[in-house]
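#struct-help
A.M.: can someone run this one for me? Single chain, 215 residues.
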Amino acid sequence: MIKGNEYKKPLLLLNIVSLLVFIFIFYCVTKGNCLTAIDEWVNTHIVDIQTPSLTTTLAFITNLSGLVGNSIFAIFAILFLSYKKWYKERLFYLLSFSGAVILFGGIKQIVARARPHSDLIEVINYSFPSGHSILTMTTSLLVYFIFVRKLTSPLAKNSLLAVCITWAIFIAFTRVYLNVHWLSDIVAGLTLGIFWVTFMRLYFVGVKTPHEKYV
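D.P.: on it. Structure tokens below:
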């Protein structure tokens, strides 16, 4: 069962802060140029750490962590949750992941921001926000919220959180490294993912399903 009333206040604070950060970046990208200098500086200087072997490795990893990769993971996760009869967690995962896909796809079309030029890999759709970043953060937080309640050791809980957040940030970094996103794209994607999953988490604390007695 998804519980956690004692975590509502910290989650609500995180939810609000992440939304405010996303709104600030959204405004800067669509109405102002307050982040342009930072974006261009990072895009220009990221080449200083690029190497052929690292580029090949990160391109392979990032290709596994996009819409297709996260969708495949979601299918297996939902099947696992069904097998375990964790019906509330299954609904939480399904709605959260589907909503994240709709969110980033819709915002991309609304903002229609061009990507930075990249000679490393070719990507043809819009840049803002980073789909890899929001989906990986969404998936990571879903894994954390679902499984942290099954753990008893504080060390295990903190380790799970560290792994999940590190993975999301790492995938976001690969997008900047490969010059297919501006820095503001990935920060927006990460914060949007945090906002969306924490919003859904707060909602599901009070939701009951027909199978609640089995969870």
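A.M.: thanks! The chain has one domain: 51-214.
D.P.: also worth noting: The helical segments are 8-30, 36-45, 52-63, 67-83, 87-111, 131-148, 154-177, 183-204.
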